[in-house]
Amino acid sequence: MVQESFTLIAGPCSAESREQVLAAASGLKEAGLSYFRSGIWKPRTRPGAFEGVGHTGLPWLQEVQAKFGMKVCVEVAQPRHVEAALEAGIDMLWIGARTTANPFQVQEMADCLRGVDVPVAVKNPTQPDLALWSGAFERLAGAGIRQLSAVHRGFTVHGQKKYRNVPLWQIPIDFRSGHPEIPLLNDPSHITGKRGMVPDVAQMAMDLGFDGLMVEVHPDPDSAWTDAAQQVTPARFLDIIKGLETRVQGNGKGREDLSSLRAEIDMIDEGIVDLLARRMGISEEIGRYKRANGMTILQIARWNQILKQSKTSAVEQGLNPGFVEEVFKAIHQASISTQRMTLTDQED
Ligand code: PEP
Ligand code: MN
Q1: Structural domains in the chain?
Q2: Measured CA distances, 136 to 76, 98, 107 (Å)
Q3: Pocket test for ligand 1, best of 9, 13, 99 (most atoms within 8 A of CB)
Q4: pLDDT per residue over 168-178, tens digit each?
Q5: Best substitution site from 13, 152, 190, 213 to test ligand 1's pocket, by max atoms within 8 Å of Cβ?
Q6: pTM of the entire predicted model
Q7: Which of 16, 231, 244, 283 makes an SS bond possible with 218, Cβ 3.0 to 4.6 Å?
């Protein structure tokens, strides 16, 4: 179960009707939500898809506030959305991934919010661009908005099948290092695109010390007008939240053990860097040999052999071969760059 300070946001992807919004909110009234969510303006990737009920949905959300005493939030993508939401007394706004990717649009909304003390959450942009995400915060902070939070919802990666939006966990980790003061939430619904995977991603976010979750919850997920495959029922949401294991940031018991394990990790990491440096030195030498003998840098048969060998050893050592493949691809790329530099140096 999550702690009190944890930000919990849940509700349907889209508001479809008054009844559907109230049914979702009623199912979530015992969940201890920080905010009930519902999209009424939906920027869609392709034209022709349902783009939200618009202003019509605002009174439904006001009814959720009045009936269940819940705070509510909506996605805004244009100044006119911001104005309408503020006028309706919406408690929090969020900027969606497609909008964060557009600096002019973010700036227009920041200007429109100047002097208003409303919480604003900013989802990461669709592309894996940390500077673009940070830029949106700089624009909002520049307009005097203080109650900011970030939502990690994954990134578009062409050809990817497992996730709808690949989490690329290193990006939110880097975001956290650069902006330790901004609460960081995770949206497992848009990352996975599949309801069965939501608990695993939510647990990963807990393990990494995220400050909250935004989850899509619908009274009848299969009939949802948008994002049907990733939404869960209110009952399932409550189960998922109950099943999450919480972790402490550090100073709990067992800290002594942790420091000796960390010392061991530090030694191993140093060893890894040493080995990489030695490997790269040999690679440079090979680069000079290839040049002297007019050989291409990429020797595909040799590369296939390295990959096969390392994946076989990975399996023998109980490691995930996919992980080891990624590591070796990165090493190989660096090795190719080094060999190209070796060629250029000699040509100079
Ligand atoms: C949403 O939250 O329904 C949504 C459209 O999300 P994103 O901006 O992350 O795609
Ligand atoms: Mn959605």
Answers
A1: 7-243 (3.20.20.70), 259-347 (1.20.59.10)
A2: 14, 12, 8
A3: 13
A4: 999 999 999 99
A5: 190
A6: 0.81
A7: 231
